[in-house]
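Our consortium's second objective concerns turning raw sequence data into structural hypotheses that experimental partners can test. To show how far this objective has progressed, the report includes one record in full. It was chosen at random from the queue rather than selected for favorable results. The single chain below, 199 residues long, was entered without modification.
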Amino acid sequence: MPFVGLTGGMGAGKSTALVALERLGAAVLSSDAVVHELYAHDEQLRDAVVERWGEQVAPDGVVDRSAVAERAFASDEERAWLEGLLWPLVGARVAAWLSEARAARGGGADLPRAAVVEVPLLFEAGLDGLYDATIAVVSDEAVRRRRASARGHASADERSARQLSQEEKARRATYVVRNDGSEEELEQVLSAVLDKLEV
């Protein structure tokens, strides 16, 4: 079963692509969803961010992700601290999930065509070597900006500046998928990618 890393810039449509891949028969996991879960349930993580940045990042004991992001993106040092804390935890969750997906495949149930993990900072974090193949979702800049602002990403420019350009992501990826049209068109292109992965 191919193990695939999915990435792309803000607003390119990574999450949409992940949902489409699941419809097409892949086992999928969002690293952002893993981070959400960790913030909600990992008390050591919550305690660490509170110790670093104060009670205001976890009012009533619940981590406020936007407050954490605001502090983490304030400087390279703060971001590196948070990444050093989060990435090993996310990596452990991904490894456990992959083991389960491979066990399901061996069990003869509905066999996943691939195991796909959405990782926004796949190349920046040097994680691409863990995967059999990588997919970069790219989109027209105006479309990306519109999507990002519609989701309330006020610091989109600042966050994007800390990421590789989508051109560089595309250059490094095994497969590049354009997402400027409809979801149906995106799904057709992704289906072709899965066909290539299964060969």
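The partners drew two points from this record. The radius of gyration is 17 Å. The longest strand covers residues 3-8. Both points have been shared with the crystallography group to help prioritize constructs.
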